[in-house]
Design a protein that fits this description.
- The protein has 299 residues and is mainly α.
- It is built from 13 helices and no strands.
- It folds into 2 domains: 66 residues, no CATH class; 216 residues, MetI-like (MetI-like fold), CATH 1.10.3720.10.
- It is elongated and about 85 Å long.
- It is 76% helix and 0% strand.
Length: 299
């Protein structure tokens, strides 16, 4: 709850920090042109949004609305912010969960193949994880777009709502995330390879790949599970950038439009929704963690 409160408060403070008169900004957004406004026009907007109330009153009204699930109404579209976001949030969630799933697949495959091997192989595994974890999504997205869409023509350049249009944006988010989770998983994986239950499994004739997948992996992925809450929230926020690069539908397009048009309720609404995604993701991780490690279950 502190995260949500902090995000909501920061969004409210950002509105107060805007230069100029907010009533004038709202009227300019609605008409699409900047001009002097009459006192009557400004008075109507100030009355509608309570802009002349003390800041404390405005803040409490704002927080009260959030507690009731009310994100306000768009200045530009004259619609509830929930409706504006709801029209596009499905595409963003599809991208987010696809990216997270791909990150897990890439991480598990790479760590399983390279951890606990010869020194050159381990060094290569660590190098690749370090390099990919530091890749900026906006740079990686442009590179993938240039190579696989413009160069090879395997994927659509703009838009694309099917699987082909989803894969490159998802990989843009998944590759750095896989590198980051791989760094956390590798040490646990190599430590687990030295445990007695691994030696026992090998003595029973189990293959090396079987030992890694059936016994070692379950113990080694606990750090990655812990990071998945952060990863899911980071992927939701990262999707905003990636959707812009690939011209995909989603919250990213809504946010860019709202920022450019100074549609503040939509901007603050998206900030709060992303913060909520962080919170929910971490709660989900707590549940998954107990499933992976039964020792954490309480009686």
């Amino acid at each position: 709850m502190l995260v949500l409160w902090g995000a909501a408060t920061a969004a409210f403070a950002a509105q107060l920090a805007l230069p100029g008169d907010l009533a004038t900004v709202i009227l300019n957004v609605r008409t699409g042109q900047a001009q002097q406004r009459t006192p009557e026009e400004l008075a109507a907007i100030n009355e509608q949004y309570g802009l002349l109330d003390p800041v404390v009153v405005q803040y409490l009204s704002y927080i009260g609305g959030l507690l009731r699930g009310d994100l306000g109404s768009s200045y530009l579209q004259f619609r509830p912010v929930w409706d504006v976001i709801g029209d596009q949030i499905g595409a963003t969630f599809a991208l987010t969960f696809t990216a997270l799933a791909l990150a897990w697949v890439l991480m598990v495959v790479w760590v399983t193949l390279t951890a606990g091997r010869s020194r050159p192989v381990r060094a290569l595994g660590t190098l690749v994880e370090t390099a990919t974890a530091g890749l900026p999504p906006y740079w990686l997205g442009i590179v993938l777009l240039l190579v696989f869409a413009l160069g090879l023509g395997w994927f659509p350049v703009i838009g694309g709502t099917g699987i082909n249009g989803l894969l490159l944006p998802a990989l843009t988010l998944a590759i750095p995330l896989a590198g980051f989770m791989g760094q956390a998983t590798r040490q646990a994986f190599e430590t687990s390879l030295t445990q007695p239950f691994v030696i026992s499994a090998r003595m029973r004739g189990m293959s090396d790949l079987g030992v890694r997948l059936r016994h070692v992996l379950r113990h080694a992925v606990l750090p990655a599970v812990t990071l998945s809450g952060w990863a899911l929230g980071a992927t939701v926020s990262g999707a905003v950038i990636v959707e812009t690069i690939f011209t995909r539908p989603g919250v990213g397009k809504v946010l860019v439009t709202a920022v450019n048009s100074q549609d503040l309720p939509v901007v603050t609404g998206i900030v709060v929704v992303i913060a909520a995604a962080y919170v929910l993701a971490n709660l989900l991780v707590d549940v998954v963690y107990t499933l992976v490690d039964p020792r954490l279950r309480t009686s």
